[in-house]
Amino acid sequence: MKYISLNYNSKSTLFHNAVKRGLAPDRGLYFPETIPQLPRSFFDGIEKLSIPEMAYRVIKPYVGNKILKEKLMEIVTETLDFDFPIIDINENIAALELFQGPTLAFKDVGARFMARSLGYLNQDSNEKINVLVATSGDTGGAVANGFLGVEGINVFIFYPKGKVSEIQEKQLTTLGHNITAFEVDGVFDDCQEMVKTAFLDSGLSSLNLTSANSINVARWLPQMFYYFIAFRALKSKNKRLVFSVPSGNFGNICAGIMGQQMGLPIDHFVASTNVNDAVPRYLETGTYNPMPTIQTISNAMDVGNPSNFIRIQKIFNNDAVKMKKYLSGYRYTDQQTRKALKEIYDLKNYIADPHGAVGYLGLKEYLNQQKEDLYGVFLETAHPVKFFESVNKTLKVEVAIPERLKDTLSKEKVSVPIKDYSELKAYLLD
Ligand SMILES: *Cc1c(COP(=O)(O)O)cnc(C)c1O
Q1: What is the pLDDT of residues 390-405, one digit of tens each?
Q2: Which residue's CA is the closest to the ligand 1 atom numbered 11?
Q3: Which helix (H) or strand (E) holds 182?
Q4: Ligand 1 pocket, 274 CB below 6 A?
Q5: Which of 138, 213, 257, 307 to mutate to test the pocket of ligand 1 (most atoms within 8 A of CB)?
Q6: Does domain 83-104+220-401 have CATH number 3.40.50.1100?
Q7: Which of 26, 92, 274, 410 could tie 296 with a disulfide, CB 3.0–4.6 Å?
Q8: What is the value of pTM for the model shown?
């Protein structure tokens, strides 16, 4: 499989180069040259495959031969080494919990797959790779955890000072070893700007910089697994499936659409956002008009200009009419999100998190407009404890802290304060 740049100004390249580079030399996102098709027999017998066997078949055509068969099987097995429960909310709506991984965020899957793949692909090289990643909260913890202890790779995480929760900050700043946390005096966009500047800085080209945001194909593509896992689990219901995905940078939902393009029988996708609604507005007006980021209680989706939207446009050949056949989009305010948290709790005693609650709202709105008998799944992308301030205040219940988090919370924070780019550059070159 070759990958092309969506800026169309770089040569196409193989998986291992796309992973090592993150972005193409012309700054475009990589996209597979063709979308592989899975045979009918794969879906007919999917429940007979184990989850790692299924995931292997899905990802294999994208990876090629640089990762040997046994090794790739080992990588997907370790990547998916936790549960993905489906919780009924009512007769035609369920939550797919993606937060049972080590950092309680769905990003664990992409981060673990990328860390293991990159570590393996770089093992015979004597050059170190330096991974830079900007985070508004959840990405950093998952990436730090995924890469911890991987030989030959250093990870630098940029987070906005005072703008991530205590749990999130601890997850970024307590690991040590090959993980460094930069505490940036600014907002998330400043973090992202620093990372972008570093990538463009020819003075840093000797450092082999790459990115672990969902622009990297090794973080983006494994997110397809969630949709195959859900289909496999729900197949016996014999229902037409709709997925509602709480979306920020649109990597997760775009991976789902890739799965559908490979043949996975999914009827429709709902992009559910907070008031950072560039994509729902596009679906209404046909014009893509990104806006500055607005802060909300579902802060992992506070993205004004979603980087993966260009991949969704590519899938549908920039045809908005075609896109709308498969994708709807809705936006919700914080007030509506809090109301949804309560509604879900009243229905099932289920404690959702603000991102999942946005997903639930989008799903309900879409299903209410359809006449067919559909079954809807919204993705629960984070454990509610990560957002316990808004959850506790809204539901007036205490969310219990899972055992695996207690150890992290007891450790000392270590971060490097960064004021501006020149400080960062000096640090990296040192
Ligand atoms: C990252 C994140 C999202 C958004 O995912 P995208 O792939 O960026 O659209 C949603 N919810 C949570 C909890 C997240 O951490």
Answers
A1: 999 999 998 988 888 8
A2: 381
A3: strand 179-184
A4: no
A5: 138
A6: yes
A7: 274
A8: 0.95
